[in-house]
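Students often ask why inverse folding is considered easier than folding. One informal answer: many sequences map to the same fold, so there is more than one right answer. In these notes we will look at a single instance of the problem. The structure comes first.
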């Protein structure tokens, strides 16, 4: 087994790679190169050898859900979210649309390290069988290389990458009245990204103690506001999986109907949003990060529907790439979102997240303002853009996070299998 050789990441993306962090107790992480890919890590493991985990997950709603998704869903149902050993991942092959043989391969992969429940994930090209001999040797190497410090976690995060240009990893510690707990999580994805789920894999690991039932409802809440609130190209993948494992090694217990639980839910949601944002920032060919915020809706669902419509509009995304403040495309998307709006109540603000002092009120109560093209040009010259829509219909709000469409996106996906 060839030893992992560290890869170089684009200078502009290195600011998103953590240099330090406090990882959860009781977990070990590792990555290795199995040979499925020509070079670099292509398998990853995160395991809890001494503390069994509770688990909760959200999976793709694509009807062609991949074999690892089917196997992981079955294991989760049979285990009722208890007794988990960890997560194992391969990249380079999605094991999707591979029929009964692919299901058998995923089951072999899930049983390779342990008879305890595990979440198994795969990502890469659709329609190809797993190279099981290589992957099993790679998993063994990943376990042998595993450890508990941040470098080991980064090695695992690198093992799940496909067209990603940097490993997406976050680690944080949270205090409670009775103690503390930690979270470390990774995600992958740069293309074929859209809610329900969004192609992506993500896993968060915490040493908090929480029941599987309570964790399940919390994960659903967090997913709706994070990984189900990002879009790069409107394509929902066959393999999307978002899982949270809690091993209780900190002895800090999270119980229902407590202040500690409300804080845990808030912390997990914000943690997941930050992981999801890293996917958008690494969108294939992306040059702009776009936060779309819809306020004043009758419900969270309607606010999100409007935001999602804007986020998936190729005309909006290409206008942002072209640095064209064509607000008519945004308003048009609001109008065909399917939500019953009152045009005379709609407002549109356009601003820079990088330089908040740069802001324009482009559309007020259904009527346009004259655009200050100089300010608009300065806003669009910054890397992070905020599009804020006010519907004037209620008190609910929702956000979507997306990026622009560039020439490079076409180039990347035209050559994906090359």
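Output (designed amino acids):
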């Amino acid at each position: 087994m060839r030893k992992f050789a560290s890869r170089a990441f684009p200078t502009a993306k290195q600011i998103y790679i953590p240099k330090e962090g406090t990882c959860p107790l009781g977990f070990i992480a590792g990555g290795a190169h199995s040979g499925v890919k020509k070079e670099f890590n292509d398998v990853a493991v995160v395991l809890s050898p001494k503390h069994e985990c509770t688990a909760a997950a959200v999976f793709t709603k694509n009807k062609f859900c991949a074999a690892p998704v089917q196997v992981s869903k079955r294991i989760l149902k049979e285990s009722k979210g208890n007794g988990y050993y960890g997560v194992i991942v391969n990249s380079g092959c999605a094991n999707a649309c591979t029929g009964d043989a692919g299901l058998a391969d995923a089951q072999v992969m899930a049983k390779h390290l342990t008879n305890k429940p595990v979440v198994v994930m795969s990502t890469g090209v659709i329609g190809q069988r797993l190279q099981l001999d290589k992957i099993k040797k790679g998993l063994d190497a990943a376990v042998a290389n595993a450890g508990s410090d941040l470098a080991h976690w980064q090695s695992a995060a690198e093992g799940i990458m496909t067209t990603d240009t940097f490993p997406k990893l976050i680690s944080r510690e949270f205090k409670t009245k009775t103690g503390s707990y930690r979270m470390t999580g990774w995600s992958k994805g740069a293309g074929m990204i859209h809610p329900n789920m969004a192609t992506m894999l993500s896993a968060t690991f915490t040493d908090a103690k929480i029941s599987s039932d309570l964790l399940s409802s919390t994960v659903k809440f967090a997913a709706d506001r994070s990984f189900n609130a990002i879009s790069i190209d409107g394509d929902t993948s066959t393999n999307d999986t978002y899982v949270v494992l809690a091993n209780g090694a900190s002895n800090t217990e999270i119980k229902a109907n407590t202040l500690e639980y409300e804080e845990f839910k808030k912390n997990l949601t914000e943690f997941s949003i930050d992981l999801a944002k890293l996917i958008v920032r690494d969108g294939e060919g992306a040059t702009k990060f776009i936060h779309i915020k819809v306020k004043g809706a009758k419900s969270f669902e309607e606010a999100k529907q409007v935001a999602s419509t804007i986020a998936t509009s190729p005309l909006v995304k290409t206008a942002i790439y072209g640095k064209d403040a064509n607000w008519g495309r945004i308003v048009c998307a609001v109008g065909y979102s399917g939500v019953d709006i009152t045009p005379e109540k709609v407002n549109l603000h356009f601003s820079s997240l990088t330089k908040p002092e740069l802001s324009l009120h482009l559309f007020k109560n259904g009527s346009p303002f004259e655009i200050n093209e100089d300010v608009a040009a300065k806003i669009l010259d910054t890397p992070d853009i905020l599009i804020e829509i006010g519907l004037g219909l209620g008190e609910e709000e929702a956000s979507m996070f997306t990026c622009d469409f560039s020439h490079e996106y076409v180039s990347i996906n035209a050559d994906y299998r090359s």
